[in-house]
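Table S7 (text form). Paired inputs.
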Amino acid sequence: MIVSIMDVIHLSSSAYRRSLGTFFYARPMLNAVARKADHIVTVSHHSKSEIMQALGIPGSKITVIPCGVSEEFAPQSPSVESRDAAKILGIQTSFLLYVGNLKPHKNVVTLLRAFAQLRKHSKLRHSLLIVGDDARWKRSVVDECVRLGIRDCTTFLPHVSQSLLPRVYAAADLLVMPSTVEGFGLPVLEAMACGTPVIASRTASLPEVAGDAAIYFDPASSEELGVQIERILHSPELQASLRNKGIQRAKQFTWRQSARQHIELYNRLLGLN
């Protein structure tokens, strides 16, 4: 039996490890899987390390096979896409983008605080687009927007179609990935593939995925995030550099390559090589 485990965030993150869902489901399920599996596949070396620590699995029993980027995520014309996406989404200004759910480990609150500081003290004219939803946690995120005085310039979209999402990435001036922990961080690669500059937290799998094609910040510091956002927005040269590096970086991650690595692993474990 070969099992794919993307991450063990529910066991490793303080936001979840004491929850009833972790106690009654995630922990016993993952421990049972780890005992019964002949081999485990995961998506990053960070996740491999976390699985080894949380579940007591030797590294020899775990293979890292990264995710890929779907072909529809490709460089596009920012000016054309910006007009089209803005019209579809009802956004009138340039915008910063976040893609992902709203659970605590996604650290969206730090992004909101950095955005509010820039709007207040640096006269930032951008809006913020948050693509993603979470029935349990959305209310607290929206309440934080209200408290910070940025509700009128923050747009929440629960879902964007796969056909529209690449255009949304291309239209954004940058993508922010503020997570405190990630098993992989696919929006980082999707944005890079579309030519959008990326700012990511300096933690977990994100530096492993983005390499030198992103700008990093301390996920506990909204101030540092704000500085990095301004740094990119005020430098066309840095934007161009991140765009070019990101496009090249994303080319290293394909689903065809992921599929080939899975097949090679299956053949090896079945003794077919």
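Next pair, protein 2 of 2.
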Amino acid sequence: MRAEYGLDKLVYLQYASWVGDMLHGDFGQLFKHKKPVTELLADRLPRTLIVALISHFFATLIGIGLGIYAAINQNRLGDLAATALSFLGMSTPRFFPALLVIHWLVFVIDSQNVGGFYSARYVFEPWSLAKL
């Protein structure tokens, strides 16, 4: 088994082999799912990009709005508040607001489908405006 997975080689040779395979698009096999990592990435990358682009869009809108508000209220309390809020938003780790949203969904709203991309009603439905 050590020879099959290349664990009988020196560590730096294992690393060089791993990096070389990655440069050729082979990220290896998933032991849990028993399929190539590239399949898992190809399956999950579109949804990840959608979530990231939507988040970036809203962050840009909020940032522009705060910037305009700070410019209009220059050297006043509104400018200070917008600057402080912007600094807080930029310095907070990205996972923390996500945890707050999950907490809000589970304990305040009592949502049953927090871990899914769609609500339970639309998981197996074809694409429609309602599913969007």
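The first helix runs from residue 11 to 23.
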